[in-house]
């Protein structure tokens, strides 16, 4: 996936989950943060950030904060980017013999990110973006997610009813050692993920090639449950 027009800035402060102050060319601007997670380890004072310039002149915020440098590593933190990147990956051959890709499909009381038909397989796939990294280990979630637990249980149900089911953890950075659920932050999610795998849900983590203008899925990352 590609951003049309990006600029660099310096993070100043986060006013709430959606809004931050960023210094761009010596001027402090209010921008939209495209990730409602905590991201405390990323949005630190004076961190270099990447912003997409809005093409809508009527918007109150002219910029969207989409990525941040953590040291010399660029991390995409746009919560919409993993779905876009995985959709491109699927259509480019992520699954063999794809005949149908449908985003946002309902199953039970959940809405999964993708329904795919490929080579006679009926596939439900849920996508989770991963931005939390500690000493090379990437983790999800960075805050408790009851919605995430619900998705895993619904995927388990779909697996028991004959669907191929996947949860994809799209790691929004390139370099990492392995992926693991964040047991300290949300032990219930970690337990639900282990149970989902036992029920037949396939758990995959994929890292990404990240530039200031693009996010592209790169390859599999080891999963440690």
Structure description:
There is one protein chain. The chain is of the alpha+beta class and 225 residues long. It has two domains: 71 residues, OB fold (Dihydrolipoamide Acetyltransferase, E2P); 141 residues, 3-Layer(aba) Sandwich (Trna Endonuclease, Chain: A, domain 1), CATH 3.40.1350.60. 18% of the residues lie in helices and 46% in strands. It is built from three helices and 15 strands. A six-stranded mixed β-sheet has the order 7-8-9-12-14-15, with helices on both faces. A five-stranded mixed barrel has the order 1-2-3-5-4. It has a three-stranded mixed β-sheet with strand order 10-11-13. The longest helix is centred in the C-terminal third of the chain and has 15 residues. The radius of gyration is 18 Å and the shape is globular.
Give the amount of beta strand, in percent: over 45%
The order of strands across the largest sheet is 7-8-9-12-14-15
Structural class estimated from helices and strands: alpha+beta
Uncertain segments are: none
Number of helices: 3
Query: What is the class of the largest domain in the CATH system?
Result: Alpha Beta
Q: How many beta-strand runs?
A: 15
Count of structural domains: 2
């Amino acid at each position: 996936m590609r951003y049309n027009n990006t600029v660099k800035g310096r993070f100043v402060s986060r006013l709430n989950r959606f809004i931050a102050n960023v210094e761009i060319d010596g001027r402090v601007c209010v921008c939209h943060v495209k990730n409602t997670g905590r991201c405390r380890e990323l949005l630190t004072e004076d961190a270099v950030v990447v912003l997409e310039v809005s093409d809508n002149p009527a918007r109150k915020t002219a910029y969207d904060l989409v990525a941040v440098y953590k040291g010399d590593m660029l991390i995409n933190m746009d919560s919409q980017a993993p779905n876009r990147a995985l959709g491109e990956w699927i259509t480019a051959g992520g699954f063999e013999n794809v005949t149908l890709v449908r985003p946002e499909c309902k199953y039970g009381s959940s809405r999964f990110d993708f329904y795919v038909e490929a080579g006679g397989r009926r596939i439900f796939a849920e996508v989770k973006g991963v931005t939390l990294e500690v000493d090379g280990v990437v983790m999800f979630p960075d805050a408790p997610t009851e919605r995430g637990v619900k998705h895993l249980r619904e995927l388990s149900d779909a697996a028991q009813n004959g669907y191929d089911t996947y949860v994809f953890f799209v790691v929004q950075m390139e370099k990492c050692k392995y992926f693991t659920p964040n047991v300290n932050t949300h032990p219930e999610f970690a337990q639900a993920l282990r149970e989902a795998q036992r029920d037949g849900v396939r758990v995959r983590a994929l890292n990404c090639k990240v530039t200031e203008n693009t996010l592209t899925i790169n390859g599999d990352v080891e999963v440690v449950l």
